[in-house]
């Protein structure tokens, strides 16, 4: 919060310098307005947004408008309620966030999802909390470099785009036409749509017709509530289709080179057992800002055998 001591230090002449500045980007202005509400600024200070930003917000926010201190950021978000948000501010946000302001925390991490977000990236409600952060998807793509890769559950295209940068061709599949539309748009933003074949369809039904060097699986985890579980069971994934074990076995009809993107609280023993007796599995923990974000399981030739020690005991 802005202290009374800080307010007293603001001089009227200084306030007039930037108050009507048009040089601030829409992105920065939007963030400042939102945080002014989160910090419960009094109405008489609403006209001083630019000055408050220059003198105060730079101390606690990064250049992308995200609070530097994660604990402080969480506290501010907890204070957030829809009834406190000015309708004028709400209109500056994407439609899906206007309808569900609980997505605001993902909006402030948008550049971690897509670095080119401001160049035309589009997402729907589910995509905001299911897209793989770009730094992680890029790392996975490097591990999965090949001629032809299949993204069985492409969603809004976060992983698909990165695969298109490391592989010669990508087949992106999703049962939801809206997701394919979003993925196609986002791929065009990154200039890689010509390397991707988009298919609207059920991955389970398409498996017998598919061929590829590598298959990447990132099925729905059941929404943000997955993180509340102490241990995530692999068969909680796509339960109506038979669970995660069945999905893995089905995919082996295409190739044994499989990358399986799973929650951070997945049980490691279950993942290892998928490989089968006598086969190897590699578990890669994905960290974002020193916090465990997720895990990627690698099977087949995707395993880095030179970093694995095998015991005969």
Automatic annotation (TrEMBL):
UniProt keyword annotations, A-Z:
Cytoplasm, Methyltransferase, Nucleus, Phosphoprotein, S-adenosyl-L-methionine, Transcription, Transcription regulation, Transferase
Q: Where in the cell is it found?
A: Cytoplasm; Nucleus, Cajal body; Nucleus, Nucleolus
Top-level taxon in the UniProt lineage: Eukaryota
The yes or no answer to whether the keyword Transmembrane is present is no
GO CC aspect terms: Cajal body; cytoplasm; nucleolus
Q: Could you tell me what this protein does?
A: Catalyzes the 2 serial methylation steps for the conversion of the 7-monomethylguanosine (m(7)G) caps of snRNAs and snoRNAs to a 2,2,7-trimethylguanosine (m(2,2,7)G) cap structure. The enzyme is specific for guanine, and N7 methylation must precede N2 methylation. Hypermethylation of the m7G cap of U snRNAs leads to their concentration in nuclear foci, their colocalization with coilin and the formation of canonical Cajal bodies (CBs). Plays a role in transcriptional regulation.
User: By what name is this protein known?
Assistant: Trimethylguanosine synthase
What organism does the record attribute this protein to?
A: Aphis gossypii (Cotton aphid)
Instruction: Give the taxonomic lineage as stored in the record.
Output: Eukaryota, Metazoa, Ecdysozoa, Arthropoda, Hexapoda
């Amino acid at each position: 919060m802005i202290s009374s001591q800080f307010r007293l230090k603001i001089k009227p002449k200084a306030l007039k310098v930037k108050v009507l500045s048009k040089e601030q980007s829409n992105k920065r202005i939007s963030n400042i307005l939102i945080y002014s509400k989160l910090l419960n600024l009094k109405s008489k200070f609403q006209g001083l947004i630019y000055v408050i930003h220059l003198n105060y917000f730079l101390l606690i926010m990064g250049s992308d408008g995200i609070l530097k201190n994660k604990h402080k950021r969480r506290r501010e978000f907890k204070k957030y309620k829809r009834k406190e948000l000015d309708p004028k501010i709400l209109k500056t946000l994407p439609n899906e966030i206007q309808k569900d302001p609980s997505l605001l925390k993902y909006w402030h991490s948008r550049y971690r999802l897509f670095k080119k977000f401001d160049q035309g990236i589009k997402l729907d409600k589910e995509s905001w909390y299911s897209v793989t952060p770009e730094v992680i998807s890029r790392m996975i793509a490097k591990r999965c470099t090949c001629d032809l890769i299949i993204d069985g559950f492409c969603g809004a295209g976060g992983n698909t785009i990165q695969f298109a940068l490391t592989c010669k061709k990508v087949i992106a599949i999703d049962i939801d036409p809206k997701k394919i539309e979003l993925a196609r748009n986002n791929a065009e933003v990154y200039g890689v749509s010509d390397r991707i074949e988009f298919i609207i369809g059920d991955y389970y039904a398409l498996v017998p017709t598919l061929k590829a060097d590598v298959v990447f699986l990132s099925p729905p985890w059941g929404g943000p509530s997955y993180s509340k579980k102490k241990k995530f069971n692999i068969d909680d994934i796509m339960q109506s289709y038979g669970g995660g074990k069945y999905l893995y076995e089905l995919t082996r009809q295409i190739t044994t080179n499989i990358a399986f993107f799973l929650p951070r609280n997945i049980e490691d023993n279950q993942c290892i057992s998928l490989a089968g007796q006598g086969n190897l599995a590699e578990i890669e923990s994905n960290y974002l800002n020193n916090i465990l974000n997720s895990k990627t399981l690698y099977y087949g030739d995707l395993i880095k055998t030179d970093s694995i020690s095998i015991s005969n005991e």
